[in-house]
Amino acid sequence: MILVKIMPQPTLYILDDDQEYANLLVEFASGSGWNAIAEYDPVVFLEKDLSDVHVLVLDLNMPELDGIEVIRAIAEKKYKITLVLVSGFDARVLHSAQQLAEAHHIKVAASLTKPIPISEFVKVLASIELEEPSKDTPVEKEKFSAIELEHAIKNDELILYFQPQVNIQTGKLAGVEALVRWLHPEKGLIFPDQFINVAEKNNLIGALTERVLYLAVKQNKKWRDEGFNTIISVNISADDIISLNLPEKLKTLTEQYDVEARNIVIELTESAVMGELTAQLDVLNRLRMKGFSLSIDDFGTGYSSLSHLYQAPFTELKIDQIFIMRMLEDTEAMVIVKICIMLGQMLGMHIVAEGVETKEIYDILHGMNCDIAQGYYLSRPIPADELFEWAKLY
Ligand code: G
Ligand code: G
Ligand code: MN
């Protein structure tokens, strides 16, 4: 990301069908050093070449083409424009439009309700960090072939990193989440976002999960022998939970290493808990009956989360980090966190808040009676020996 602080006059558009209002904002933006231009017609606006535009102050409610359609068009053309959203509508529409823009990877500097206090408008403009505007698509992440990945799984190139989870109420270590990494002989450490979907698309996820479970169980045993008995959570994919012999395989593995089933938590993302419900419920129930714990990961972001809680015997609920990270600035996120804590606890689950990045958020979660925290405030995912040292100090 290149910051262009020395750029003489960054361009800002005000798109608002209320001409007087637009002109007024242009005056204030010009006064703050912007090359500010008013446009009253969204159709005309979208016909322009916008590749040099840095900021768009966008009125969501325009008669011909509304702001949502403008957001879509900007996303389609891949313009790197930072938005300031404005609406006379209720705050929830504004909030939701912001989510939409962010889903399209468009930055939103602020959402403001009309009439905008001018002092706030000027403050928002001053806070915007400028990037080089460009139509270029972001660099594609390196894609690995199925053959390379298969080779890696077989040749012991997958390793586990561990991120601690701390019981907020007692301050003690509650467990660790295992997160797979690929230690590539030439390319170094590769993160799962670059290979999990390769595994999922090429029928390799079963082998990958099996490998991860093996590494986790083995690590659990090793730590216990060193006097560190902890719980390890492992992520599994949708295809794994329709594999009917998963519970038996995992049971055999833990028995072989003399690891207690209660030391292993199986984490499922909500999007994984979809379709093929009968096979999934079969597997989930038998995992539970064999003593393994079940965690519903990224809770609140997938489909029909409530019916999954109703149908499957989850023991733990992990609130998606997006809500945790935003809860200080965003009332909606805060409300969702509160409700998830209540809901989970009333159903007898313990609650993990993911993405805890600051002491402030940790303390608020403590006050909200949340059980467990996980996030950069405590530690990033780290190798096994580092985690062991970390746990000693904790
Ligand atoms: O730290 P991090 O970049 O590791 O994890 C990124 C994503 O990859 C997370 O959504 C996590 O659930 C997923 N992930 C990490 N390890 C595994 C794994 O062993 N199996 C599966 N299926 N997903 C994993
Ligand atoms: O999807 P899942 O919850 O399994 O994946 C956890 C992911 O979140 C991993 O990629 C992990 O590295 C990341 N993560 C964990 N804690 C934090 C945090 O506090 N902030 C951010 N930005 N990411 C985190
Ligand atoms: Mn997880």
Summarize the structure in words:
By secondary structure, the protein is an alpha/beta fold. It folds into two domains: 11-127, 3-Layer(aba) Sandwich (Rossmann fold); 146-391, EAL domain (TIM Barrel). The protein is 41% helix and 22% strand. The chain contains 15 helices and 15 strands. It has helices spanning 19-31, 42-47, 67-76, 91-103, 118-127, 146-154, 196-201, 205-225, 246-256, 277-289, 305-311, 321-326, 331-346, 359-367, 384-393, and strands spanning 11-15, 35-39, 53-59, 82-87, 108-113, 158-167, 173-184, 188-190, 232-236, 264-269, 293-299, 316-319, 350-354, 372-374, 382-383. The strands form two sheets. An eight-stranded mixed β-barrel has the order 6-7-9-10-11-12-13-14, surrounded by four helices. It has a five-stranded parallel beta sheet with strand order 2-1-3-4-5, sandwiched between helices. Strand 9 (232-236), helix 9 (246-256) and strand 10 (264-269) form a beta-alpha-beta unit. The radius of gyration is 25 Å and the shape is elongated.
